[in-house]
Amino acid sequence: MAICRRSFIKAGVATGVALSIPSALRSQTAPSAARTARMVKSGDLRAFDPVFSSATITGDHAFAIYDKLFAPDSKFTYQPQMVERWSVSDDKKTYTFELRDGLGWHDGTAVTGADCVASIRRWAHVEPGGQLLMARARDISKIDDKTFRIVLNEPLGLMTELLWRPFMMRETDANRPPTEQVTANIGSGPFKFNEALARPGASFTYDRNDKYVPRKEPPDGYAGGKIVNVDRVIWSNIADQQTAFAALQAGEVDYVESPPADLYPAIEGDPNLALQRLNKSGNLLYLRMNCLQKPFDNRKARQAMLHLVDQEAFMRAAIGNPNYFRPVRSWFGNGTPYTNEENTGWFKKGGNPEKAKELFREAGYVDEKVVILQPTNIAVLDHAAQLLAATLRKIGINAELAPSDWGGLVARRAKKGPVEDGGWSIFITSESDFSHSYPLFNVSMSANGENGWFGWPKNDEYESLRVSWANLETLEERKALALKMQRAQWEDPGSILLGQYFSAIARRKTLTGLIGLVDWIPMWNMQKT
């Protein structure tokens, strides 16, 4: 199949495959093309609010239009971004932050300390690190228009790491409940969202914010000066991978975020294209179970999924080329300081379907429908979902696929009700291996029930260990805690690892300066030559 696809592509452009590109996309070619970057992202942007949704594409959107108080550089040292200066009291309980000059919202008003306070409070309702901050905070308040402070009941040494997480919004937007989306798309970041050119399902447009004042430091990771070198960026939604690749070859787009691995040789063989790995840590592919509904409200059913999964089979289905994947047993990923082998006896090459069947019986499974959300426009997740459904059916589980695009999956996974009412049982997603070195900040690593992330697992033993992470000062202490956390996690899992994979973006060689670190791909610094 891969040979046929490559042969198709080689001949396709010459015989007019590019004609299958939507006419709306072709019509966007304009005299200012040298100052316009066109990108095909992984999936369709449906959720615009980074507090409401943790989807990576929502984060990419937020990085464009919003700004942050702090940001990590390429060495993961947290540097001031919107903050000009900050101080901490001798008892380590009072932090004072002063904003830098030149910060303004896209509507022309100035950024204030009150905006930052409201943004921190709203974010803190939904993210584990924020919940920890609020549990220790006595007061979060503005001092004046450019200054705010956080007063703690007890010291919290991770403050700058915590405060890099929330995006700053206008106070009027941040006062909205976190369960309701902010819809204004007005930030203070280097790009403005062009509402007039928004075409949901087709494309979204971002324009350079002429009034944005970047920091003076050079770009370094997500920190430093956010210099915008293009006038416009257009995100085009092209669900079909072959059409997206044909558009890249034809120069209709400059960037394709997730080309299938079997297209890599064709990309490398084109003198006008380049493959580039932006996420150096690789990604963990995993499935998330709805722990509020049958059958996965029962711990035995969740444990059954640990034994059912054959990681090599899932990686071959999702990725294909074994040069780009490997198994992963540790809850803390393959390449983090906390990777360990504690309580990994369930891992077996080929899986253990008989053990999975036994555990489902012990869970009292009686033919309840298991609905697997299937994003058909993201090949890695689509193929993994299809294999999962087939694997469950082989052991007698009533598995059903619910196909949609990624945007539809993001909307549906927020539903907590039963499948009969439009709910779900399992979805598959991915995140960077590196993100699993931060259990306090990574929402998917929490297990605090209905206050937590989609799937809502509740594991009190694990959660008490996770929260105590903030009290440890040394790497060795955290490594020891990671062993206990991993034991508790695999005793009562809410997520099941499917493997680690490495992917690359495809770009035309005329698009340069892309910043890569972990999950998100910002649009500043890139340029067309």
TrEMBL record:
Entry-linked InterPro entries: Peptide/Ni-bd, SBP_5, SBP_5_dom, TAT_signal
Keywords: Signal
CDD domains from the UniProt entry: PBP2_NikA_DppA_OppA_like_16 (cd08502)
Gene Ontology terms describing biological process: peptide transport
Designated name of the protein: ABC transporter substrate-binding protein
Domain spans labelled Solute-binding protein family: 78-430
Localization per Swiss-Prot or TrEMBL: Periplasm
PROSITE patterns: TAT (PS51318)
Family, as annotated: Belongs to the bacterial solute-binding protein 5 family.
Originating organism: Bradyrhizobium arachidis
Pfam families: SBP_bac_5
Listed GO CC annotations: ATP-binding cassette (ABC) transporter complex; outer membrane-bounded periplasmic space
Keyword Transmembrane helix in annotation: no
SUPFAM superfamilies listed in its UniProt record: Periplasmic binding protein-like II
Gene Ontology molecular-function annotations: peptide transmembrane transporter activity
TM spans (from-to): none
